[in-house]
Automatic annotation (TrEMBL):
Record's keyword terms, sorted: Membrane, Transmembrane, Transmembrane helix
Organism: Botrimarina colliarenosi
Membrane-crossing segments per the record: 27-43, 55-76, 88-106, 229-255
Official protein name in the record: Uncharacterized protein
Length: 261
């Protein structure tokens, strides 16, 4: 990656030494680099086509992204643009580049976090699985009441577990998920154990499992949701950059009077 930056710097230096209009040359190459970067998402949507390995595309994506940063700096001459179109374009590039750096971190940390849970879940199936866990928990408690006539576990469920199984987690959990709620509920279930009948204890063991599963589902929803939101934002910035960049190029050529260097 460092070699790509050095190569770009040497190329720009050569352009300036030859008295060529480096702003146009770097603009062409920079736009081409953004087109290539955007093509990576299309490559991921077409895995069956013989377009090369995804790992090779990812490596090329990283190298070109880093090199584009050097090109961008050279293109703007080290000064932030003052015009509306140029300033907007610079903001879009900076946002796309920064979101790419963030994505590099997220895509290397979140999958490792998800792998530590006992089961892996498909994001789109999580709402259905949550509903299933909620129904199972309610059924376990109702069956225990029917079997013994005791309501200790049912009262505990209504007071402490019903909301946990029914409600989505708070925003702060989505931003920074922890196992605090799971540990607290486990401790409370353990403390009530001495008041339970034997059938209720068996039901409580099942509730332990369901609390753990619900917590894992919430964790996956939060972490995968972050990845989904990042990808949506990164792709949106990239395509906006392509559109505004094309408009900027047309305007630059129009005022310049021709496409030659």
């Amino acid at each position: 990656m460092a070699g790509a930056v050095v190569g770009c710097a040497l190329w720009v230096t050569q352009l300036e030494a030859s008295l060529a209009r480096s702003a146009y040359a770097t603009g062409y190459v920079l736009y081409g680099a953004v087109v290539f970067l955007a093509a990576y998402q299309l490559r991921k949507k077409l895995p069956g086509l013989p377009l090369g390995k995804s790992r090779s595309w990812l490596q090329a994506h990283l190298v070109v992204a880093i090199a584009s940063g050097a090109l961008f700096y050279a293109h703007i001459g080290g000064r932030w643009p003052s015009g509306v179109v140029e300033g907007s374009l610079a903001l879009l590039y900076a946002g796309a580049f920064a979101s790419g750096v963030l994505g590099f971190y997220l895509t290397r940390t979140i999958p490792k976090q998800l792998a530590r849970t006992g089961e892996q879940f498909i994001f789109e199936q999580i709402p259905r699985l949550r509903s299933s866990v909620q129904r199972d928990a309610r059924t376990v408690v109702v069956d225990a009441v029917h079997a013994t006539g005791a309501t200790t576990l049912a009262d505990f469920y209504a007071d402490r577990l019903h909301g946990f199984f029914r409600r989505p987690r708070a925003l702060r959990y989505t931003l920074r998920p922890t196992t605090t709620a799971r540990r607290r509920l486990f401790n409370e279930l353990t403390s009530v154990d001495r008041f339970l009948t034997e059938p209720e204890r068996s039901a409580a063991e099942r509730l332990f499992q369901l609390v753990r599963r619900k917590d894992d589902l919430d964790f996956h929803a939060a972490r995968q949701g972050v990845l989904k939101a990042w990808l949506f934002g990164h792709i949106g910035l990239t395509w906006a950059l392509l559109v505004v960049g094309a408009a900027h190029g047309v305007m630059a050529l129009a005022f310049r009077g021709g496409p030659t260097l």
